[in-house]
Recover the amino acids of this structure.
């Protein structure tokens, strides 16, 4: 039974450790850590651009006829 | 459809909108399955929690049945909220985030549906197992083997799915949230399988079990719930406000320093215990080093929201998410202080620790999950939350409830700890100090449960499309809002 | 950020180090203990559990005693465990070699049970305490474990195992309260909890 435990632990170590290492190494190599400023903006698009809020209570929108994004201070 | 996905040279906002809607819609069934079961287990977990709490106020309450004894109801509560609620809500949120951030519709949803079924069977068997006396009394790993095996299968399916999704992502930048999610999906199976092998499948001797137990217990919070919670906050806060995260560099630094320091933290639950001094010391040092990721994250979230705190009034998502993000900082700083031996000696073995656990898993993680659900569900089903009033009730009930719970447990725990520390004070006196605070804790539990019932009603009405008769969307900005009209038009 | 590979390898190695330190190290060094034979008395320490007490360990786990009771006596400087008389010496890893699952615990809503068998060696006391904790120990918020006991009609002689209830609780005339096998096992385990035996690596601290 002990051998099984050894094997399971060793396999887990190699598999999970190896894949973590591989993933991180790949990320570094493929330039995921360059251009961080653009990276931060990657969640916006033309339809929901910077400066557009995307969530609000309905009744709060009524007394706030402003374009929500415009009201925000610019980043 | 293929035109939308093909990403032609000129992309119009309308195309991007359609594409986003398509991606959101593709996650509908798995997200609803995971969220629905999460809400169900949240209610079950709340009832178990109330029962356990009231049993401390009146030990004769329902004490004639073994399956409702305090020592079973309490772990049943913990496992129902940790695996049934928090993990399922976290998985549901992660699925949607993965699809959005990979910029591709969700694939292989059968894997996820299978995982959701296994997950729920596992949680159900586990809780019934604990109540019927099969519980293992290993904190955070009480589920008997037949239940944890089910969870492990579900996990395997989800991890495979995550890797497949990631492979088919649209090329481009990998947002920081994805780092957190992928790391969580890799770390958790490693933790869960190792701990289950050494504690349940082929248990090692008791002395070693303590160390493995807390390596697992603490890392579940740190390397599973924390990355998912932070991934969600890192997406939702900028997205709702429409401004990028204050410092993307800091967010990456925060991620790596979390990965570096967190995994050694667990042994601070065993300070003074039967372990080599260096093992405990290493844990204390790593716990103190957690200051780096915590402060980078705190600065980042604060600076992103700064100047826009009025947004908390009008965005339900932001209200919950920012509450959670702030509590992340609080919970982490508190956790660091509790690892310092001179404070630990007071707080160890007391209700202070229980308060800390709720600050972490509830005020931080659960609140962020509520925020995420408010954002994600309307987009996934394609219609609105039925009532803004229900959302406000939900927020205030749970915000006041959790605030009160943490405060009373912290004060009660401090009194208890100081009394325990002084050998001239009888043990019974240390218990007497806690009694009024434990009563107040039950009251705070009632508030939380009321909030959960409000949320469950809101959730059910949403699924029943009860609120869909409105002509205007309730919660997200309408297209009209987005028109670049002059302000005084 | 072009030092990425270095950071990456660092991250992996630290997680690995925690795995080695908190999993592999305990596996090889905290879980390979053998008992020690006391040269003066010939006792085997920690002593093996009786079959009934071993069963009692599982009852203890099933009842979730761990959620209010710890089983560890901390070193001097870490709380008042020794001063409270919860043990004659701090406990060490070898003390737990026969425990699975281990009941170190993280809460002290109730007192530490590392050496409860030394403090309360009476089997009857434990039965009474489990059945009517608030009577035996006024102020306690321990629930009654009456589900581990049977109330049955006396047929002929009152059975020898029947427990004597303390007032104000009383048994209806003609009935008796007898521990189930599980209650017997749990109490056998509790009275076996006595870790005041000597171990070479855990000397008794001076008074």
């Amino acid at each position: 039974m002990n051998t099984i435990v050894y094997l399971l632990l060793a396999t887990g170590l190699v598999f999970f450790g190896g894949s973590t290492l591989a993933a991180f190494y790949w990320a570094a190599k493929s330039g995921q850590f360059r251009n961080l400023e653009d990276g931060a903006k990657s969640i916006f698009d033309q339809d929901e651009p910077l400066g557009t809020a995307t969530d609000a209570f309905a009744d709060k929108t009524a007394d706030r006829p402003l374009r929500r994004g415009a009201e925000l201070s610019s980043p | 459809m293929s035109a939308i996905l093909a990403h032609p040279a000129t992309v119009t906002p309308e195309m991007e909108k359609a594409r986003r809607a398509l991606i959101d819609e593709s996650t509908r069934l798995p997200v609803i399955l995971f969220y629905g079961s999460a809400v169900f287990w949240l209610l079950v977990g709340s009832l178990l929690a109330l029962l356990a709490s009231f049993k401390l106020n009146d030990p004769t309450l329902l004490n004639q049945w073994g399956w409702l004894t305090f020592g079973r109801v309490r772990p049943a509560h913990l496992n129902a909220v940790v695996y049934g609620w928090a993990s399922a809500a976290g998985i549901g949120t992660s699925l949607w985030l993965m699809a959005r951030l990979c910029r591709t519709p969700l694939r292989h949803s059968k894997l996820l549906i299978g995982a959701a079924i296994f997950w729920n069977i596992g949680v159900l068997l586990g809780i019934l197992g604990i109540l019927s006396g099969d519980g293992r009394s290993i904190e955070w790993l009480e589920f008997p083997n037949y239940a944890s095996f089910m969870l492990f299968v579900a996990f395997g399916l989800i991890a495979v799915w995550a890797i497949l999704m990631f492979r088919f992502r649209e090329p481009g930048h990998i947002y920081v949230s994805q780092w957190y999610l992928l790391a969580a999906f890799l770390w958790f199976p490693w933790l869960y399988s190792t701990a289950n092998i050494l504690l349940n499948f082929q248990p090692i001797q008791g002395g070693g079990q303590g160390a493995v137990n807390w390596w697992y217990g603490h890392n579940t919070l740190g390397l599973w719930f924390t990355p998912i919670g932070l991934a969600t906050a890192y997406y939702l806060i900028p997205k709702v406000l429409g401004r990028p995260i204050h410092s993307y560099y800091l967010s990456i630094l925060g991620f790596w320093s979390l990965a570096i320091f967190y995994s050694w933290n667990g042994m601070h639950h065993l300070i003074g215990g039967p372990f080599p001094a260096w093992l405990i010391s290493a844990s204390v040092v790593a716990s103190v080093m957690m200051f780096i990721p915590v402060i980078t994250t705190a600065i980042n979230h604060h600076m992103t929201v700064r100047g826009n705190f009025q947004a908390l009034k009008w965005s339900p998502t932001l209200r919950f998410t920012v509450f959670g993000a702030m509590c992340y900082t609080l919970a982490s700083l508190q956790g660091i202080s509790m690892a310092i031996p001179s404070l630990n000696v007071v707080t160890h073995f007391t209700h202070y620790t229980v308060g800390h656990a709720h600050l972490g898993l509830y005020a931080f993680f659960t609140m962020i999950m509520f925020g995420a659900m408010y954002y994600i569900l309307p987009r996934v089903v394609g219609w609105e939350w039925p009532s803004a009033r229900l959302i406000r009730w939900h927020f205030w009930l749970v915000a006041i409830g959790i605030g009160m719970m943490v405060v009373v447990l912290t004060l009660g725990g401090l009194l208890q700890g100081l009394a325990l520390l002084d050998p001239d004070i009888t043990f019974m006196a240390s218990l007497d100090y806690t009694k009024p605070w434990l009563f107040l804790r039950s009251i705070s539990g009632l508030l939380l449960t009321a909030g959960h019932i409000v949320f469950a009603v809101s959730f059910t009405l949403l699924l029943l499309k009860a609120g869909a008769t409105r002509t205007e969307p309730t919660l997200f900005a309408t297209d009209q809002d987005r028109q670049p009209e002059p302000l005084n038009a | 950020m072009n030092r990425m590979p270095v950071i990456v390898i660092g991250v992996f190695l630290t997680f690995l180090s925690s795995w080695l330190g908190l999993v592999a190290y305990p596996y090889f060094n905290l879980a390979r203990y053998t008992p020690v034979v006391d040269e003066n008395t010939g006792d085997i320490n920690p002593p093996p559990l009786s079959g009934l007490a071993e069963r009692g360990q599982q009852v203890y786990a099933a009842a979730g005693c761990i959620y209010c009771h710890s089983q560890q006596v901390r070193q001097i400087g870490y709380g008042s465990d020794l001063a409270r008389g919860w043990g004659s010496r701090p406990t060490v890893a070898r003390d737990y070699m026969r425990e699975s699952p281990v009941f170190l615990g993280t809460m002290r809503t109730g007192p530490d049970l590392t050496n409860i068998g030394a403090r309360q060696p009476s089997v009857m006391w434990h039965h009474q305490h489990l059945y009517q904790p608030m009577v035996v120990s006024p102020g306690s918020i321990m629930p009654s474990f009456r589900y581990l006991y049977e109330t049955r009609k006396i047929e002929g002689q009152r059975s020898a195992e029947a427990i004597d209830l303390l007032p104000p609780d009383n048994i209806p005339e003609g009935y008796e309260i007898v521990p189930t096998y599980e209650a017997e096992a749990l109490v056998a385990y509790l009275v076996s909890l006595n870790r005041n035996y000597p171990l070479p690596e855990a000397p008794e601290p001076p008074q």
Remarks:
- Residues 61-75 of chain A have pLDDT under 50 and may be disordered.
- The longest helix of chain A spans residues 2-29.
- The CA atoms of residues 41 and 63 of chain A lie 30 Å apart.
- Helices of chain A lie at 2-29, 36-40, 58-62, 68-71.
